[in-house]
Amino acid sequence: MLGAKRKEKEMEAAKSKVETILGEGTRIEGEIYTKGSLRVEGEVKGIIQAEGDLFVGEKGVIKSEIKGRNVVIAGVIEGNITATQKIEIMSGGKLIGDIRTNILKIEEGALFKGNSNTLEKNELSAPGEAKRVKKEIAVSQND
């Protein structure tokens, strides 16, 4: 219960910073580019490039190649992600694909299936030369 409230607060804080929202029931195929942040509650198939953050809500489903600053996943992503700062998979979130980022946080109850590599400072590292990503994995605490 405590984790659910924290998750709800984080997602609410994220909503207030988002410039573009694709609501539930919206389906887009193609390329999306935004200078700001994007929240997806619907479905996207194609390519997403955000200079800001990408938030995938619990009902969001993305089948796409993604580039962004921070990517927070509470829904489903199938595709590769490059995030210049952080990727966070919330409890109940699913990510199937390879990632490149500096920080990876996976909460208990989340699913990640793929490979993870870190980015070099200010540029992408060459294939085969990438270091493993630092991982923050939630540990269950029984109170």
Tally of alpha and pi helices: 1
Sheet-strand content, in percent, reads: over 45%
Class computed from helices, strands and strand pairing: mainly beta
User: What string, H for helix and E for strand, traces the elements in order?
Assistant: HEEEEEEEEEEEEEE
* Quaternary structure state of the chains depicted: single chain
Sequence stretches where pLDDT stays below 50 over 5 or more residues: 123-134, 139-143
Average pLDDT over all residues? 83
The coarse overall form would be globular
* SS elements, strand count: 14
The end-to-end span amounts to 12 Å
Provide a short characterization of the protein structure.
This protein has 143 residues and is mainly beta. Helix content is 10%, strand content 48%. The protein has one helix and 14 strands.
Question: Topology, pairings included?
Answer:
Blueprint: H1 2-16, E1 20-22, E2 27-34, E3 38-40, E4 43-50, E5 54-56, E6 61-73, E7 76-78, E8 81-89, E9 94-96, E10 99-100, E11 103-106, E12 111-113, E13 116-117, E14 134-137
Parallel strand pairs: 1-3, 2-4, 3-5, 4-6, 5-6, 6-7, 6-8, 7-9, 8-10, 8-11, 9-12, 10-13, 11-14
Q: What this model shows, in words?
A:
The protein has 1 helix and 14 strands, in the order H-E-E-E-E-E-E-E-E-E-E-E-E-E-E. The chain has 143 residues and is mainly beta. The chain has one domain (35-137).
Considering the chains and any ligands shown, give keywords for the structure.
143 residues, mainly beta, 14-stranded parallel beta sheet, 1 helix, 14 strands, disordered C terminus
